[in-house]
Amino acid sequence: MENSRQLFNAGEMETGVKEIAKKIAARFAGKDADFALVGIQQMGVVLAEKICEEMKALGFVPDFGKLDITMYRDDFGTRDILPMINETEIPFDVSGKEIILVDDVLSSGRTIRAALDALTDFGRPGFIRLAVLVDRGEPEFPIRADYVGFNVSLPAERKVKVYFAENNGFQPGIYDVKWQ
Amino acid sequence: MQWTRKDLLSIYDLSAEEITCILDTAEKFKEVSERRVKKVPALRGMTVVNFFVEPSTRTRVSFELAEQRLSADVVNMQAQASSLLKGETLLDTVKNIEALQVDLVVMRHSAPGAQNFIADHLKCGVVNAGDGAHEHPTQALLDLFTIREKKGSFKGLNVTILGDILHSRVARSNIWGLLKLGANVTLGGPSTLVPREFESIGCRVCHNLDEAIKDADVVNLLRIQHERQTVGFFPSVGEYAAWFGIKGSTMSKMKKDVLIMHPGPINRDVELASEVADGNNSVILEQVTNGLAVRMAVLFLIAGVRK
Amino acid sequence: MNGMILKNARIVDPVRNIDCVGDIGVADGVIVEAASVKDPQIVDLSGKVVSPGFIDIHVHLRQPGNTAAETVATGSMAAAAGGFTSIVAMPNTNPAADTAGSIELLKRTAQEQAVVHVLPCGNMTKGGKGEEMAGIGSLKAAGVAALSDDGKCIQDHALMRHVVEYAKSFNLPILDHCEENTLAAGGVMHEGKWSVLLGMNGISSASEELMVARNIILARQIDWKIHMQHISAAESVELLRSARSKGIRVTGEATPHHITLTDQCIKKFDTNYKMNPPLRSERDRLAVIEGLADGTLTAIATDHAPHTGTAKMVEFDHAPFGIIGLETALPLSFTELVVKGVLTIPQLISKFTSGPADILGMENYSLAVGNVADITVIDPEAKWTVDKSKFFSKSRNTPFDGFNVQGQVVMTIVAGKVVYSR
């Protein structure tokens, strides 16, 4: 908690999630929507679950998937700590599907690049859009989010962390923390 | 659990936690094999050399496929231990391979500990694909993976390994893995091929087939090598089959849900009758499938450690 | 002339049963009354132990044939540094020491280059192949101290019987490497728990025990001396104990490595733990120590077996057998046997002096006035760490690098000349 500050509290965060859900709902309103939410492991999955609940409240029943991008990283073998692989579960046919990829923070864009590769290995989606809770605005790749909860501008040495539940002394919320 | 090893040399070296980490990772890779594109870019740009100083088809093909599905560049090298003896030393050979900026060496060798020896002298990762009668860690890991998939857990599970334990690296790796994960291990077969010394590490040694398999949840059969007969370990393949082979009629003496496993290649109707090998209790082909996922997991973990 | 007095040392002389503080005079290469030395150089050896020079009845000098690993010059210097004033050179050189010519060559080389006495040992069979008897009579005439096919063992019992009978008529002791081949075939380490766990081919203890028993039977029948080299197995010790109690003329030696290490050391596949006979179980190790303690084994011998770094830098299966031992023999034995209370200092010294002298038939091997001044001085209190980079041997194949030991050779005198001191 040292050297960190809260950017948004739990209540504001919840509002942000609802906003994203509403925007996605607007995209598919009135159509015979065949779309899916795919969360990127790990926080993107939690966010996608929350968005999915909101969408159900709005009368939508999207397909739901989980995607782990560890095998698709571009920094494999160069990190001190090898990330453990989490579950990938795409229980629907991706081909032709309209997919909303969900992650907590859009930072460098590299995770999304990997996720696009991973997702297209399952088939040929109709289109893919990106939803993030926080967009830091300066990706290293030409990747933009379509549905954004919050826009945050921070120096590169800072990291944005999202906690949906209490974690290690942090109350739920969005934080600006120092890179470890 | 954080994977930190640059080499996979033996199951003896691993903790239960590390074994579980590999099995968990393998589960994720098994899912990859069910995708439309059965390939991930994890090892893209990395070079793996399969260096086999002892003939092998199955293991080499399984490793090669695993490497390709991880997008590694793959080179296969074969050598005879005898020609290595006369010419370049093993160490010089692998040093030369490493000098070509290779990231991983998957090696099989007829001498126990050969991989331990070279791993001490190499910066690149080394994966043991079988060293003499010492260890064959990836085979044991795929056996463990298959057992866990079918039986859920190892605690209190009765696993019987049958056959030529003395000369089997598969047996040794399995024994260490099973013991570390909490299974009860019984070793069965002729007294000349199943030494009592294994009792000192907590195995049950049994020279009577019926007794060895009676309470088994899993029976893992080893290939019986015909050449052992000529040096007098047993009188004949026929006698081996009669006393220690699993026949159709043997099934009634075992638990109904016993798993029948075999690392292959099977001597049909010697250690294992065809009707059992192809029967409902057999998971022999699933072992082969799982071998791919397990080897992908091992290569992924080893390659992911910064050298 | 050339006189020296070793003053205030603890003199340990097993043959004469002496253990007291005193002075020893040396002049003209022999031991003299201290008072008789004129204008002597005084060497104060307070706190040190002075004994007859150590004898190693089991050394491989590798010359001719493998001078990359050792030479007569380097091997003898290593011997001097280990406190040995006499070493028996095993005949498994290339060519083998199975003819008078080979022995004469070795003697001449030793005369020119060696700093200690090199006692040649001739082969029992031609080429050490165990097939035809070597020219034992001419070997005797050339000056061999003993006969051995070390490294191999004559499998043909009738041939062995004839060799022993023939050697007796030439008054030559037999030093036998006891190994029955079929029970050792393909083996690279002791057959036991660790060979089973590591998946390595084992060398059964029975392989040694069978040939020890065979030799006991032949020694009794022929009434001649057969010495069993590097005894490693518990039952071998028991067989020897029983035979010696019946007056059969058999003896046995222990190596420093068999009393300090066991087969468990091999689990890291370090080829410096590969030797033949192999490191055996803890039970065997303790039995060999017990054999030294109760007098069943009367000698400690090193089986100093140099190999180049290249030769040992291979797979365990393919590495040659053997480790060097001359420069670590005394400290390892002292640490394992004296420090741990198994032997007294005089008892330990007997294993390096009177024991091996008796096996070779050397009479009155002592510090008595008039004897050749072969003298070893040790510091029983010195605690130090083995550093193989400091060895005089040309080879470095030792598992003992970095071992903390007690007991150190501080001076070696050969025929009145100080050939080593620290």
Beta-strand percentage range of chain C? 15-25%
Discrete helix count of chain C: 13
CATH class of chain A: Alpha Beta
Share in helix of chain A: 25-40%
Basic shape of chain A = globular
Q: Under the CATH scheme, which architecture of chain A would be assigned?
A: 3-Layer(aba) Sandwich
- CATH topology descriptor of chain A: Rossmann fold
Strand order of the largest sheet of chain A: 3-2-4-5-6
What CATH architecture of the largest domain in chain C would you give? Alpha-Beta Barrel
Number of helices of chain A: 3
Mean residue pLDDT of chain A: 92
- Counted up, domains of chain C total 2
Which chains have the largest interface? A-B, 23 and 28 residues
What is the count of structural domains of chain A? Answer: 1
Q: Sheet with the most strands of chain C?
A: 8 strands, mixed
Into which percentage range does the β-strand content of chain A fall? 25-35%
Query: How would you characterize the largest beta sheet of chain A?
Result: 5 strands, parallel
The beta-strand count of chain A equals 8
Task: Determine the oligomeric state from the structure.
Answer: heterotrimer
Number of strands of chain C: 18
Query: How does the helix and strand content of chain C classify structurally?
Result: alpha/beta
Description:
Chain A is of the alpha/beta class and 180 residues long. Chain A has a single domain (10-27, 34-72, 86-154), classed as Rossmann fold (3-Layer(aba) Sandwich). Chain A has helices at residues 10-28, 43-57, 110-120, and strands spanning 5-9, 35-40, 63-67, 98-106, 127-135, 147-151, 158-163, 173-178. In chain A, strands 3-2-4-5-6 form a 5-stranded parallel beta sheet. Chain A has a 3-stranded antiparallel beta sheet with strand order 1-8-7. The longest helix of chain A is centred in the first third of the chain and has 19 residues, at 10-28. Chain A is globular, with a radius of gyration of 16 Å. The model of chain A has no long low-confidence stretch (mean pLDDT 92). Chain B has 307 residues and is α/β, with parallel strands linked by helices. Chain B has 2 domains: 7-136 and 289-304, Rossmann fold (3-Layer(aba) Sandwich); 137-287, Rossmann fold, CATH 3.40.50.1370. In chain B, 39% of the residues lie in helices and 16% in strands. Chain B is built from 12 helices and 10 strands. Chain B has helices at residues 16-32, 58-69, 81-86, 90-99, 114-119, 137-151, 169-180, 209-213, 226-230, 237-244, 274-277, 284-304; strands at 7-8, 47-53, 73-78, 104-109, 125-131, 158-162, 184-188, 204-206, 218-221, 259-261. The model of chain B has no long low-confidence stretch (mean pLDDT 94). Chain C is of the alpha/beta class and 422 residues long. Chain C folds into 2 domains: 4-49 and 371-421, Urease, subunit C, domain 1 (Roll), CATH 2.30.40.10; 53-360, Metal-dependent hydrolases (TIM Barrel). Chain C is built from 13 helices and 18 strands. In chain C, strands 1, 2, 3, 4, 5, 16, 17 and 18 form an 8-stranded mixed beta sheet that branches. An 8-stranded parallel beta sheet of chain C has the order 6-7-8-9-10-13-14-15. A two-stranded parallel ribbon of chain C has the order 11-12. In chain C, strand 17 (404-414) and strand 18 form a beta hairpin. Chain C is globular and about 65 Å long. Chain C starts with a strand and ends with a strand. Chains in contact: A-B, B-C. The A-B interface holds A 68, 70-73, 76-82, 84-89, 117-118, 121-123 and B 1-3, 21, 24-25, 28, 31-32, 35-37, 39-44, 46, 70, 103, 300-301, 303-307.
